[in-house]
Design brief:
Structural class of chain A: alpha+beta
Distance between the termini of chain B: 28 Å
CATH topology of one domain in chain A: Penicillin-binding protein 2a (Domain 2)
Structural class of chain B: mainly alpha
Radius of gyration of chain B: 22 Å
Number of helices of chain A: 22
Number of helices of chain B: 16
Helix content of chain A: 25-40%
Radius of gyration of chain A: 35 Å
Largest sheet of chain A: 7 strands, mixed
Low-confidence stretches of chain B: 49-59
Distance between the termini of chain A: 132 Å
CATH class of one domain in chain A: Alpha Beta
Strand order of the largest sheet of chain B: 1-2-3
Number of strands of chain B: 3
Oligomer: heterodimer
């Protein structure tokens, strides 16, 4: 009986054991036969690692093949989460070596969802830090050191505003460009041409597929996809002219400060090939160091760049300024084209104009005597242009200004271009509106609505003109400042008032005067060349417009500009000695509550013009004295002349 | 007694008893051990991807684990042979001594033991602590012997719950001692051995089922309540486990909750086995194994190496080998000369079964992680020697059976 019991019990036991083993085998079969794919994928994710090979970004050259922006291999440090218990310790140690906050590293690690996938923590890591990491390798599992080609600027800050800077793609940019194959950590052009030409400059990253162990150490190479470098870009920029412009702007600022113009901390200069619209130089001062913006910024560095009162990030060549007397050529051309005057017609300048019981002074209080058009430009006679402006009328002035591209964007390949303002009744109304009280604003809007309806009903030009006059009267009734007055025409004629034009726009307008009336669309990129040397895009000059101004008119204006640099009383007399003949115009724009902006425009050679320049030095006083030397340096560089130690003589305008 | 002893010795000398050796069992165990050595080699083999310096330093130790394990196999075989030359009934005379010895060993661990992975389990002996001896392994066999003797004397006194209480007390003392280490896995094995032996000894099946069900139910409810209260009421329900042990115990239910923490081993082990597929990735070819993704793979997680490198075929083959061993245990228990022999065989069978279930179960993600080795397969001397000694005992019982098997 005892025996039977044991036997029975052992039989039951046998069943239980069979069931246990069946469960184990079934589970094994489920995992290995049914879920094999899933686990194989997981295993592959465990051990396969695509080690990225960063493609170098395209390089940038000037028109003569000088390198402007290149690449250089730098060290990067990354960390992979290996799922080890001492991860915190690794983060702490690495943070201490890299000089980062442990939380910052932890955050980046936490963002990486996939195990073992390295996260880039620092770029441009100095060699001594790399050595320290290597020494402590055993205490730093998961830490990787790689090299990566990153932007190098052989000329430092030069061309910083045109080129812009490159920085790790941010979240919004990533979301916007996801379909273009960007991933977090990729470099991305943030401004300037780096931004505009991002799709050309960026390379195609390659990769090395490797098998790794649990410490993320590569075990076996499984294949390499070579990176494809980005396309190279050849600019229209002339390295020499650019350099001269930047250095001269800095000198001009220092000189102006020395002379007591404490706010003269900024400026811009542009040089254009008048035959094509190709930009030879575009400088903005002060500049920033693009390399600093490529990596992590300390608070101090950030403040220096982004919170500086001098705003080094601004490309001032694309910023609009009141042009001052550099605008007078427009008024002169409008005068001749509307037959309001002739080149020979002279006025007698007493040093002022009395108009509507108001006295408008010339800059030279005792007057310039008998003044015809050429002399008016040469000595920058304000009285002449007050009178001419009144005769021509604001509409004609605005028409000619627009023909020369003023008041509109040139469409250059850079973001952030101002369009500027050509003054007129409607621009004046728009500019004053923000200063109206709410009652006035309501009335103005009511008037605008009413006349818009009336204008839509009529087709006759005559009636339209009458309506506009009536509208002006109604606006005047609301507030005197809302309507256009002769006063506005008078100050517009000497480039004051609401006029605002970019330095680039001014250079381009002077270029059109120089080349006989053809307005080109200025451009910076000559061609794009792929890594094998094939030209994939070449820019040809684009004519924006042939102006309606006659060759004779242009010749008179050019003659006037030529006289500007000639003795005895040209406002820029004394510059450009030993140069091919230069034509120029000075400008001094009044800024309410500040020192004047100094302007200078020029083209050369006078007979067969090649280059036009425009310069502004903010709050630096006299245009000739302060902006002139910058133009002189640029032209000297262009013509290959040894730079000027000429004493600069010029008369205050 | 004396005459039978003598006659046995005579029979042994005449190789009569030796002819009754269970060759199927011996061959199966030998296969398990050899496979085990092979996979210990695979699990400890340095991967080719190490840097030159690392490879040189580990090159000396290329076979170190295998050699050490081989020594243990030889020691264990010696123990096994020694077991053949005694009368297993003689053990009955020494039961009290063995029981006390067991308690002293387990107590000593708590006082002079080395700790590893958060538990004190080892006593180091010999030069350079060559032999790190793990009393809780030997203790399993001692408990089987002692409990078999304990039950032997109370054949028909197991029908009521009250009759079982002395049994619980008898096993309860060593259970508490190993829990103190803390070694949850071994405690679980003790309890499984006890229940298995009680069942064979004649305890009522429904009573035992009730105890098992009640025990599992109570523990599950306790753990569940602990977490539920902590999460919802902010109340810490006392539980005789450290928080990390608790986590390790239940993480197998959802290892992806902490893929880098407590769930890491479970996930990596399952990935290894799962990617093995039907045929496996080939011996020494497992990427999980040789990429060092799984720690302590030569011990607790060695089954995952088999699963990865030899696939479903290899895994099931190993399970079949274990099944044969356990099946032989059952036959030996049925055919033993006396009740004591049956109880011993049943105890050893329970021990092996629960080890295979828990170890393989945790490798394939259906059992909690409790640090239980795969018998005669995992790297580890104490376990190997214990199991081979137990095997000697089994063979002994089988040689002295009443009737011929088959």
């Amino acid at each position: 009986m005892e025996r039977n019991l044991i036997e029975r019990r052992m039989h039951i036991y046998l069943y239980i054991v069979v069931i246990i083993f069946l469960i184990l085998v079934i589970r094994l079969a489920y995992m290995q036969l049914l879920q094999n794919d899933r686990f194989s994928t997981l295993a592959r994710e465990n051990r396969m690692r695509l080690i990225e090979i960063t493609a170098p970004r395209g390089e940038v050259f000037d028109r003569n093949g000088n390198i402007l922006v290149g690449n250089q291999p730098v060290y990067t440090v990354s960390l992979a989460n290996l799922g080890r218990k001492d991860m915190d310790g690794v983060v702490q140690r690495l943070a201490a070596i890299l000089g980062m906050e442990p939380q910052e590293i932890q955050q980046k690690i936490d963002q990486q969802e996939r195990l073992y996938e390295p996260v880039k923590l620092a770029t441009r890591v100095p060699e001594e830090i790399v050595v320290r990491i290597e020494e402590q390798r055993l205490e730093l599992p998961g830490v990787g050191i790689d090299t990566e080609p990153l932007r190098e600027y052989p000329n430092g800050n030069m061309l910083a505003h045109v080129m812009g800077y490159v920085r790790e793609i941010n979240r919004e940019q990533l979301a916007e460009n996801k379909d273009k194959g960007y991933k977090s950590g990729d470099p991305f052009g943030q401004s300037g041409l780096e931004y505009t030409y991002e799709q050309y400059l960026r390379g195609q990253d390659g990769g090395r597929q490797v098998e790794v162990d649990s410490m993320a150490r590569p075990v076996r190479d499984l294949g390499v996809v070579d990176p494809v470098p980005g396309n190279n870009i050849v600019l229209t920029i002339d390295h020499k002219v650019q350099k001269a412009a930047e250095e001269a702007l800095a000198r001009a600022s220092q000189e102006a400060i020395k002379q007591g113009y404490g706010e003269a901390r900024a400026g811009a200069a542009v040089a254009i090939d008048v035959r094509t619209g190709a930009v030879l130089a575009m400088a903005s001062y002060p500049a920033y160091d693009p390399i600093k913006l490529s990596g992590v910024l300390s608070q101090k560095e950030y403040d220096e760049i982004f919170n500086s009162p001098w705003k080094p990030m601004l490309n001032r060549a694309l910023l609009s300024y009141a042009p001052g007397s550099t605008f007078k050529m427009i008024v002169a051309m409008a005068g001749l084209e509307t037959a309001a005057t002739t080149p020979q017609t002279a006025i007698s300048d007493p040093g002022y104009l009395i108009w509507n019981n108001h006295r408008y002074n010339d800059w030279k209080l005792n007057g310039h005597g008998q003044v015809d058009m050429v002399k008016a430009l040469k000595v920058s006679c304000d009285t002449y242009f007050y009178q001419l402006g009144l005769k021509v009328g604001i509409d004609n002035i605005a028409r000619i200004a627009r023909e020369f591209g003023l008041g509109e964007k040139t469409g250059i390949e850079l973001p952030g271009e101002d369009s500027g303002v050509v003054p007129g009744p409607s621009s004046k109304l728009q500019l004053r509106k923000p200063y109206l009280n709410s009652g006035e604003l309501r009335k103005v809007e009511e008037i605008e609505q009413r006349y818009e309806d009336l204008m839509n009903k009529t087709n006759s030009d005559e009636e339209k003109k009458q309506l506009l006059d009536k509208k002006a009267k109604d606006l005047l009734a609301v507030n005197w400042e809302l309507a256009w007055h002769d006063y506005d025409t008078i100050i517009t004629s000497i480039g004051q008032g609401d006029s605002r034009y970019t330095v680039l726009g001014m250079a381009n307008y002077v270029a059109a005067i120089a080349n006989g009336g053809t307005l080109y669309k200025p451009y910076l990129v000559q061609k794009v060349i792929d890594p094998s040397g094939r030209v994939i895009e070449e820019n040809q000059p684009i004519v924006a417009r042939h102006t309606s101004v006659s060759p004779e008119t242009l010749a008179v204006v050019r003659e006037g500009m030529r006289e500007v640099v000639l003795p005895p009383d040209g406002t820029a007399y004394g510059f450009f000695s030993g140069f091919p003949p230069v034509a120029a115009k000075t400008g001094t724009a009044e800024v309410f509550g500040h020192d004047n902006h100094a302007h200078f425009v020029a083209f050369a050679p006078y007979e067969h013009p090649e280059i036009a320049v425009a310069v502004v030095v903010e709050f630096a006083g006299h245009g000739g004295a302060m902006a002139g030397p910058v133009a002189e340096s640029m032209l000297a560089a262009y013509f290959g002349l040894t730079d000027l130690s000429v004493t600069h003589k010029s008369t205050p305008e | 007694m004396n005459t039978r002893e003598r006659s046995d010795a005579a029979l042994l000398e005449q190789n009569i008893l030796l002819k009754k050796l269970d060759r199927t069992l011996l061959i199966t165990v030998a296969m398990i051990i050899l496979l085990g050595l092979l996979f210990i080699y695979s699990a400890t083999k340095p991967s080719e991807l190490l840097t030159a310096t690392e490879a040189v330093s580990s090159g000396d130790n290329l076979f170190a684990s295998v050699k050490k394990q081989l020594i243990m196999v030889m020691l264990g075989t010696g123990m096994m042979i020694m077991m053949l030359f005694m009368q297993y009934e003689d053990l009955l005379k020494h039961v009290k001594f063995l029981y006390v010895l067991n308690l002293i060993m387990l107590g000593a661990v708590l006082i002079v033991g080395d700790s590893a992975m958060g538990a004190q389990r080892w006593i180091a002996i010999g030069p350079n602590q060559f032999f790190r001896f793990q009393p809780s392994e030997f203790s399993k066999l001692l408990i089987i012997i002692c409990f078999a003797a304990f039950l032997n004397s109370r054949s028909n006194k197991l029908s009521r719950l009250r009759d079982l209480l002395p049994c619980f007390a008898y096993i309860g003392v060593p259970v508490l001692l190993v829990l103190k280490q803390p070694d949850l896995g071994t405690a679980l094995v003790y309890v499984a051995i006890m229940i298995g032996m009680l069942f064979v000894a004649g305890a009522r099946p429904w009573l035992l089922t009730g105890i098992i069900g009640g025990g599992i139910g109570t523990v599950s409810l306790w753990i569940w309540a602990h977490f539920w209260l902590a999460a919802n009421r902010g109340f810490e329900l006392w539980i005789p486990l450290q928080e990390y042990q608790l986590k390790r115990l239940i993480i197998f239910l959802d290892p992806w909750k902490e893929p880098l923490g407590a769930g890491y081993n479970v996930i990596q082990s399952q990935i290894a086995i799962g990617q093995g597929g039907f045929w496996g990735r080939g011996l020494f070819n497992g990427s999980q194994t040789h990429g060092d993704f799984l720690p302590i793979q030569e011990t607790d997680f060695i089954f995952s190496v088999v699963g990865e490198e030899l696939g479903f075929i290899g895994g099931s083959f190993l399970l079949i080998l274990f099944f044969i061993v356990i099946y032989r245990c059952i036959l030996i228990a049925i055919n033993a000369r006396d009740r004591f022999g049956s109880l011993l065989a049943a105890g050893i069978m329970s021990m092996l079964t629960v080890h295979v279930l828990i170890n393989v179960g945790m490798n394939i993600g259906i059992m909690p992680i409790t640090g239980i080795p795969l018998p005669m397969f995992s790297y580890g001397g104490s376990s190997m020697i214990t199991n081979l000694t137990a095997l000697g005992l089994l063979l002994n019982i089988n040689m002295r059976r009443k009737k011929i098997l088959f």
